[in-house]
Amino acid sequence: MIVVSDTTAITNLIQVGQLPLLAEVFGAVIVPPAVKIELAEVPGQWDEVVDHNFIEVKTPANLNSVALYKTYLDDGEAEAIALAVEVQADFIVMDEWKGRRVAKQAGLRVIGLIGILLTAKRKGIVSEIRPILTALAEIAGFRIHPALVNEALKEAGEA
């Protein structure tokens, strides 16, 4: 499975001590250089990624696509979408609505943190998603509409 990620999901999972979930759900994850730079802006964050050794940095070749996406999105999202298209990714991990919309328009399958948590629950990697959702909100400041939380908990059989 080929999975490309932008910065937000990785940052949020690091903050709540759940970064290994990405590897457990997907195996390897690819990020573009802009995501590495964004992750390295927070002290210790890139070191955490390196310690887990399942995230590979790959540069998108199509700089015209990157430049086009940068007119709408930040550098990490733009490079991640361009890279995901190039490598024909099975998924792109992205939570921001604008980036998700652009990724879908590019023909990509998008998954966010909630989708990752639900997949982890279905695979038996986690027994409950509620504590992780709570930590994401309280520790990482992850903003999610209460209706979406309720829908996710219902889907996970935790409502």
Question: Can you give a write-up of this model?
Answer:
With 159 residues, the protein is mainly α. It has a domain of 111 residues: 5'-nuclease (Rossmann fold, 3-Layer(aba) Sandwich). Helices cover 57% and strands 9% of the residues. Strand 4, helix 7 and strand 5 form a beta-alpha-beta unit. Helix 3 runs antiparallel to helix 6. The longest helix is centred in the middle third of the chain and has 12 residues. It starts with a strand and ends with a helix. 40% of the residues are buried.
Q: Calculate Rg over CA atoms.
A: 15 Å
Strand order across the largest sheet: 1-4-5
What is the total tally of β strands? 5
Please, what is the CATH homologous superfamily of the domain at 3-113?
Answer: 5'-nuclease
Can you count the helices? 10
User: On the 0-100 scale, what is the average pLDDT?
Assistant: 95
**Separation of the first and last Cα atoms:** 31 Å
| CATH T-level fold name of the domain at 3-113 | Rossmann fold
CATH architecture of the domain at 3-113: 3-Layer(aba) Sandwich
The low-pLDDT segments are none
Helix content: 55-70%
Label the overall shape.
globular
The share of residues in extended strands comes to: 5-15%
CATH class identity of the domain at 3-113 = Alpha Beta
Main structural class: mainly alpha
N to C succession of SSEs = EHHEHHEHHEHEHHH
Biggest sheet architecture: 3 strands, parallel
